[in-house]
Amino acid sequence: MQDDAASTSQTPSVYGSSYSEEEKRILALCEQFKQGITVSVIENDMPHLTKQMVVDALNKLLAKNKLQLLSKQDGSLLYKLKDPVLLHKLKGANKEEQAVYEIIERSGSFGIWARKIRAESNLHLNVVDRVLKRLESKKLIKSINSVQAPKKKFYLVSSIEPDHSLTGGAFYSDNQFDSNFVEVLMDTCYKYLATKLKSAEAEHGKDGPLTVVNAAKVTSKEMQEYIERVKLAKIALSVQDVEKLLDTLELDGVVRSCSGGYGGKAGGGGVKLWRAVPDCTPTPHLLYAPCGVCPMAHRCCDMGSITPQSCRYLEEWLQ
Amino acid sequence: MSVIFNLFNSIAFERTASKIVETFFDSIVASVVKALYRSSGESLQSITRLTHLPSKQVLQALVSLIQHNLASFEYTPQRQVHYRLNKANIFYLLRKNKYIHHVREKLGVAAELVVERVLEEGSITASQVIVCTTCKLLMTDLSSAVDRANQNPGDRHIIVRDALRQLIELGYLERCASPSSPAPPCCPLLVKPSSDDKHRFLPDDHLNLQLIAQAVTENVETSSSSSGAILPDASSFPDGKIYWRLNYDAFHLQWRDTLLVTSVEKNVGAEVGLVFRGLLQVAYSTVEDKWQSGVYTTAAHVKHALNSAPHLEHCLQLLGEGESGGCVRRIGVGGGGGEYQIEVAQLVAHITAEFLAKRIKEMFGSKAARVFRLVMRNHIVSADMIASACLLDKKEADQVSNMLFLNQILLVHDLRKASMPSSHTPELLFFKVNFLEVVRLTASQCFTELYNLLRKRELLTEKNRSLMEKKTRVDAIVDNIVKSGATQEQIQDIEEMLTDAERTAVTKWLKQQDQILTVVSGITDDIFLFELFSRYYCHVDDLSVGRSAA
Ligand code: SF4
Questions:
Q1: Which CATH architecture has domain A2-82?
Q2: Any residues with CB less than 8 A from the CB of B80 and at least 6 apart, and which?
Q3: How far apart are CA B251 and CA B247, in angstroms?
Q4: Measured between CA atoms, how close is A309 to chain B, in angstroms?
Q5: Containing domain of residue B395, as a range?
Q6: Which of A206, A313, B43, B121 would suit a FRET pair with B145, their CA atoms being 20 to 30 Å apart?
Q7: ipTM
Q8: pTM (predicted TM-score)
Q9: Window 515-544 of B, Cβ < 8 Å to A
């Protein structure tokens, strides 16, 4: 990033004399990195500035309504150039609308719900509702129902993509958990690992069990690429999403994970590796007769209406 | 983790225990078992009072129980005799065929017949068992199975003696107390073998082979093939006071090893399983107690003993890396290459946990097993986390966890309530698993199922009794007329005494009996795993399931 910034060290002079050199440079950086910049980017670009000078410059730009402040998922702050179109749109907005918009803007990709806006803006709930409706009709903000609390409406700036905690991530569609899709994905992952295990056994059987085990292992990245190749998902799955699938398969007892790079696996050392494990636990014998799965077992005794002598299930099983 | 956990001390086993005894003995012995079950020691008078049986019958029942090591007695400080049950041994009656089969596989037919007889009598002298087994061999067509090349058929008692000696040397049989004669009227007093008696040794001077051969000849002449050999009087032989009984522990130790090795084999392949078995054998040569929760051996020792194993390094690495359930730990790599510690307890816990997960899967579905594994892995899990961690729909996750809770697999973990409850602090629900309780619960279900199956079998036996008696009569007649050279027509006439419907009913009943006994035998395997778990659970640090134990 530093190199990129250095390559454009020449500050364009589109901003007038009301801006200091530092402010101009910050605006130029924001123009270059449309997704926003952090303080460290500014510090890297202008190492001669003290922290206080950077903060002062940023505050001035915020006061001049040139920048917007966003919070990232990890809590760090992001400075982004304010959309001139948006500025234009907000120009006609009243003070209440501007205040509400700023609160929503600050909430970033996590969004904010009406009650919290009311608490922060000190406006009456009816007023907040009215303002929200107006902002929505101007397409400055959008509302979304969270998967965690489907009845709660969260408001975000239109241009921001909602966080996974709101949408549920790749495994949700239309705010609903897509079980079938997840099942298909898990099945695909397992089949891939199982095939890998089979081919490892066939190809490396003679080289010893460790070689077989290592050859059967797959990294999360490899699995992600495979899913991408077979084009199962409409949206691209992240490595974390794929690890979630594999972790669930591990909870199913059909996959095992281990960290580190065995056998010269690309990207070893700390990378999570996965391999299929055969389902080696035999079915408990307890389940071979109906009593093992009988919901009435706790009421079954020698007397009363539920007894082994009169049991229909036992009789049927013995037929 | 210092809770004492005895599988056979449960209420659930109570009626199963008396049903087992009723199946193998009679209702009188079963009543005595019932009377003794809940007490830690009862006198003859109180047993008589509890059972409403004459004291003579009670005493006879107690003799049977003590002879079969199903009960024991001790003197109170007031010099009263108190009896108590050996509950586990009652359960082992159900494994009778397994012990016999195991010996047949390992040592052949002669040893099998010896064990069969020992189990029949409970405790028996060497001379008695040699006479009875040799007679059985002579009277049945099993003789050919034990005749070795160039062996004189008249020397079969030598073959049986050798088999017996082998059984003793391998620890399958052990010395036990001998009945004092005459028995005092109040209790079947036993004389315990003195501590310097060799328990794993059958000295030649204890056996008079000539006397045994003579007893065999007399026995064959007097007994019929249907009634079997008659048990000779122990006092007529020089070893009349040296009794032997089955040592269950020797069998169980081998079964435990098979269970562990099979688990490793299935996880990482036969080659690693073989090395693991070798590792166990090497470790056994240096430990006193093979049942220890963890056994050690040095790497140098292992490499020396297993140097012919292909890919030894690979196998040891896999065993050490937890790919096989975390059963082997390498400690230190100093001078001789360090030590290997075989974590028997850890592996048993791992197998038990997987077994329970499998049971949950079969009963409630794979999603329930997933939730169970998650809670086992994380120890405590909030209800909200279940859906996201198990990739389940929130509603479905709630349903599954609720079902597991209702079936006592998940427990609600009590969190201390906030001192100032307010609407801002949400009510959080946490789940946990009390693994010990789940094992106990499953074992109880096994006992209930055993009871139900034995009861059903008893009812069906009663229902088919007259039919089976008729069949036995017809078979006996057919046997006799075949021996006397009857024609095919005559045989057919006799066979037709059983109608087609009766024949079908007999076949059906035999099939049902097989079906019941197969499941009963299988459940004893399930219980065996729980027995191992109850032996080791206090040595287990982590009962996690669903992840490699690395
Ligand atoms: S005997 Fe019938 S009712 Fe009783 S536990 Fe078994 S299946 Fe259930």
A1: Orthogonal Bundle (1.10)
A2: B43
A3: 7
A4: 6
A5: 356-417+425-437
A6: B121
A7: 0.81
A8: 0.80
A9: 515-516, 518-519, 521-523, 525-526
